[in-house]
Design a protein that fits this description.
7 helices; about 210 residues; five-stranded antiparallel beta sheet; single chain; alpha+beta
Length: about 210
């Protein structure tokens, strides 16, 4: 399933819930984002469930995040989330951040430096795996966990469970550089590299018009 088809399926689910009245066109625009926000507001206060929606898809928020990733890593992130949720129930994990464009990445970098708030990231654009080397799709997601009552958990053993499952499945875990929610699936040819070498190789491929996969 390609990114457009993933978003179309999320739109269908949101429409069936009465939250989305736009076209089923795969456009992650304002109407889709508003519908996802309404879904979150309606469902987060309720006790979540690890059960997956039909067709093997993740929850709408996770699915919208997955749609921003490189097509080769989308299904592995769905499969990993399913395994994580089976292990951490009754808590529920969701992919809450995927690809970041230049403006978003640099705004996060500015926090705690030139903008108010705590520091969020040490990476400027395009030096995060969220940036895909400066391309248009990412290779990393941040996971967030929610209690059975819908409360966001910014700390907890669930993050270690997720990271260990990710490593066992061939992903890289951000705990190696102090970012426990961060999980990345690299192209196969770049998996043995250090984090810095991986990012530099990804940027080189994008800048020179080379295929980033495999």
């Amino acid at each position: 399933m390609n990114p457009v088809e993933c978003i179309q399926e999320a739109q269908r689910q949101l429409a069936s819930a009465g939250l989305y009245a736009g076209k089923i066109d795969g456009d992650p625009g304002t109407l889709t984002q508003k519908a996802v926000k309404l879904w979150r507001e309606a469902h987060m206060p309720e006790p979540p469930t690890p059960a997956q929606p039909p067709a093997g898809l993740a929850d709408p928020r996770s699915e919208a995040t997955i749609a921003t990733l490189h097509p080769q890593v989308q299904q592995p992130f769905r499969d990993l989330l399913r395994a994580i949720n089976a292990a951490v129930a009754p808590s529920v994990g969701r992919w809450i951040s995927g690809y970041r464009g230049e403006a978003e990445q640099n705004a996060l970098y500015a926090k705690g430096r030139t903008a108010p708030g705590p520091r969020v990231t040490s990476a400027r654009w395009p030096t995060s795996s969220h940036n895909g080397g400066g391309g248009t799709t990412g290779f990393a997601c941040d996971i967030g966990f929610f209690s059975a009552g819908g409360t966001y958990l910014d700390e907890g053993p669930q993050y270690d469970v997720a990271g260990k499952l990710a490593r066992a499945a061939g992903f890289h875990w951000g705990a190696d550089f102090g970012d426990r929610p961060h999980i990345c699936l690299r192209p196969p040819s770049l998996r043995a590299m250090s984090e810095t070498a991986f990012i530099n190789a990804l940027i080189y491929r994008v800048n020179n018009g080379l295929a980033v996969w495999p």
